[in-house]
Amino acid sequence: MKAEVEPLRTAPFLVAAGLASVLFAADAWPAFQAAGTSAFAQIYFAYAVLPRAAMALIAGAALGLSGLLLQRVLRNPIADPSTLGVAAGAQLALTLATLYAPALLAGGRGMVAFVGGSAMLGLIILINWRRRLEPVGTVLTGLLLSLVAASLGAALTLAHGDYVMSIFIWGGGVLSQESWEPTVQLGWRFGVAALFAGLITRPLVILGLAEESAKSLGLGVGTIRLVALALAVFLASSVTSMIGIIGFIGLAAPALVRAAGARTIGMQLLTAPIAGALLLWLADGLVLAATVGGRDLLPTGAFTALIGGPILLWALPRLRFSLQQVPSPRVLHRLAHPRIALAIIALVLLAVVAVALCVGRDGEGWFLATGSAFAELMPYRAPRLAVAVGSGALLALSGFLLQRVTGNPMASPEVLGIASGAGLALAALLMLVDMPGPALRFGAVLAGSAVALAAILAIAARNSGGPERLLLAGVALGSCTGAAVTTVISDGGPEAMQMLEWLSGALQGSTARQGVAALLSAVLLLAPLPLLARWLVLLPLGRPAAGSLGVPVDGATRAMLILAATASAAATLQVGPLSFAGLIGPHLARQIGFAKPLHEAAAAVMLGAILLAGADWLARMIGFPYQMPVGLFASLIGGLYLILLISRR
């Protein structure tokens, strides 16, 4: 007797279709009525309103199918083109081709996007292959590589000014259309991919079995995986080449159809594209409903990222973690003479500062600034170097405190979404207040950092699971706040360039006042550390042990978190959200062998300062006469370092 198959619950689909239809009618009906009054209104309805709705449906269907294929092949319930970096790789490839090889775009953007997306997915699979593509580590790698790709893309945008500002805005996922051509192109691509997906339905069923069982049934596992991954990348890169990055639709659509009762792969292949189409059509309808003065308040892709972060947070308790859990930061070996090691690090910091001040390039090559040349360059180099040193020290201090309090070796203001929370508050301030002063900016950034820190710790308290779960929660929170920052930038107003410069950590305009403020903030916030030495030793032992030894656990934790949030806010305001000095400084200090908290803190602070000071000098030298923003340059280094750290676990 066959087991009864639970029927598909159609209510979620009908509700989504109804809401999307109502929103579409509210936007299209006035345009349809106006079409009979003028030729322009008729053209607008036929070539803007209708193609946009069709594009939303086709792009959503393509992303839904792409996400399902990725999840099936990788056996990863949170895989989709955005979490695996496929979309970010495609966008970066398009940006590079636009700037440096426009001839490649003559035959269409699809192939360029496909190569970029394939390269990114291939790199992620290569990094995680040794761990059998463990779900959380694979997605973490994808999200972090996406951050690195976004940093590089933002650096290119700043370097080429208004020429590629439109690429940045387009990359936020804009569905606005001016003709039917892009929609038709994406439509036939989706049709071809859907046909091939249907042809491999039976192999996909067998692929759901254990690999040994699939091979025993005569299935070429490697070939089927390669075909399915190629189809997924083809779909995702095609969407990205047409409308930019649309995040999390590929994650939500398969989850929705499984929740609705689609158990077989055949039913999922049929319904996931429908769910994706309805979700994106609904999301775009909500964006259109919030349109002000004929302009979208935010790109549709930014809106999907805004709601995708909570979806990822909702999925956290339902994930299985197979990575080795690390209970607390630990020192692999202890230095016999830590004071000597600290002195050496201090000398390295002084050497980096000296090089940054004295060594440079001009039209004739490298030169050493001395005498009058040194005096002329000091007003330009010293302030930005002071900001870099002070901010690097502050971020390392914040990371050190967060790692001590949470017992998480991957905790830092950058990767836990704290810096992104600061960006959200800064974006809101710039939209509400014209030309806010430094004090108001710092207050907003501090408030945003504190709220984001409280949110991420609350999530961690509810969801045990070790460093990877907390890190994934931080990245998800960063996705939400990053969507708001993208909204401000895509608006194109005066605050857009301010936010883009902040996002990149550009220090070109640093003043002497800012340099003094950064160094003074570092000194003032480092001063209380000796008073916290006992807490720093005992808190990592755990709440019961620390409390039994007389530590006021709640008060101590609160004090150190306030100190960490303040240090993060003071630094993030200057160098942006993506430097990773808060992660690398403390981690390197432990790798070197500093065991005592104050020794580790001192080493971490100096290493953080070295990282940003060195990054600032390299950012000025590598692309001479152009300058890369120090925050983005440091994020390239830090993001790759973090990926290496994850891959070795």
TrEMBL record:
Gene Ontology molecular function, alphabetical: transmembrane transporter activity
InterPro entries given in the database record: ABC_BtuC-like, ABC_transptr_permease_BtuC
Similarity comment: Belongs to the binding-protein-dependent transport system permease family. FecCD subfamily.
Keywords noted in UniProt: Cell membrane, Membrane, Transmembrane, Transmembrane helix, Transport
SUPFAM superfamilies to which the protein is assigned, alphabetical: ABC transporter involved in vitamin B12 uptake, BtuC
CDD domains hit by this protein: TM_ABC_iron-siderophores_like
Name the record gives this protein: ABC-type Fe3+-siderophore transport system, permease component
Keyword check for Disulfide bond: no
Membrane topology type: Multi-pass membrane protein
Organism annotation: Aureimonas frigidaquae
One BP term from GO: siderophore-iron import into cell
Membrane-traversing stretches: 44-70, 82-105, 111-129, 141-170, 190-210, 217-235, 241-257, 269-291, 297-319, 340-362, 382-402, 414-433, 439-461, 516-539, 559-580, 601-620, 626-646
Primary subcellular site in the record, as a coarse category: membrane
